[in-house]
Amino acid sequence: MQLSREALMRAYRQMKVIREFEERLHVEIQTGEIAGFTHLYCGQEAVAVGVCEHLDNDDKIVSTHRGHGHCLAKGCELNGMMAEIWGSREGLCKGKGGSMHIADIDQGMLGANGIVGAGAPIAVGAGISARIDGKGKVAIAFSGDGACNQGTTFEAMNMAVVTKAACIFVFENNHYSEHTGYEYAVGTSNDIASRAEAFGMKVWRGDGTDFFSVFETMREVLEYVRVPGNGPAAVEFDTERFFGHFEGDPQRYRGPGELDRIRETRDCLKKFRASVTGAGLLSDADLDALDADVAEAMEAAVAAARAAERPTPEDVLADVYISY
């Protein structure tokens, strides 16, 4: 499927926003201004964008503790995201969610989750709702190779098959469940997707470091799941993370030169640039202009987050329960 120039520009910009957002947090966290644990998504941008470019606000996603990329790709507003991580009242969740618990229901982003594997059951509920609604919408559960070992994920996959939920389980295999290589921690060491296949659902696999592989794979998956009665599906994307499990992780489990190698050979932004410029679809000047635009937007977002109003003690009891 040939994407238009506008679609290519948008996809690159979305990936670049995520990359710059995470790279900037990597720097700002060291100032001590940002509270709590933060898990960066750098390296995996092609998965979030390649998946979410197919979705609209009525399609739902559920994220993980490493969720900034999913939020931004789904349309969560940049300044609101940055303000939330800074703990501001002007954040998407009024400063109460922070890095691991950002949600934006209007954008179909049902929330990040600090508990590994806890998002999958939520996505199944949304997928059952989508099936009953009958409008061809879907719910997507993003998970990592660590979550594939969780009982909640197994139960969710089984429930999705039994109920024919319009649900897609997206496994981002970045090779490390926290600090443990998936070759050791996952019994089906060749892949994760075969676990979902065992529950009776169709599975796909793709290169998570290549936007075009992710985009085309998800087109096929979504065409299948959007058909009433087909039920759920799963897809595994092989990808990389460029930083540690959390900010401050010394990464002693990495092999010599491993990070340099994957940044050089498996960077989805470098691959995208080489692909589109090599094919004459976009120029380096086009992409450089987008880079500059994103850098300017990031500077503004950080400045606004620093200056934003913080919650007061009286705010602690506000928004505890939602009113319909």
Rg, rounded, reads 19 Å
CATH architecture: 3-Layer(aba) Sandwich
**DSSP strand content:** 5-15%
Number of separate structural domains? 1
Helical content stands at 40-55%
* Helix-strand makeup class: alpha/beta
Q: Give the overall average pLDDT.
A: 94
Query: In what order do the strands lie side by side in the largest sheet?
Result: 1-2-3-7-6
What would you say about this model in short?
This protein is of the alpha/beta class. It has helices at residues 5-28, 45-52, 68-74, 78-85, 119-133, 151-163, 182-185, 193-198, 211-225, 258-265, 268-278, 284-307; strands at residues 60-62, 139-144, 167-173, 176-177, 180-181, 202-207, 233-238.
Description:
The protein is built from 12 helices and 7 strands. Helix 9 (211-225) links the parallel strand 6 (202-207) and strand 7 (233-238). The chain has helices at residues 5-28, 45-52, 68-74, 78-85, 119-133, 151-163, 182-185, 193-198, 211-225, 258-265, 268-278, 284-307, and strands at 60-62, 139-144, 167-173, 176-177, 180-181, 202-207, 233-238. The protein has a single domain (5-306), classed as 3-Layer(aba) Sandwich (Rossmann fold). The longest helix has 24 residues, at 5-28. With 324 residues, it is α/β, with parallel strands linked by helices.
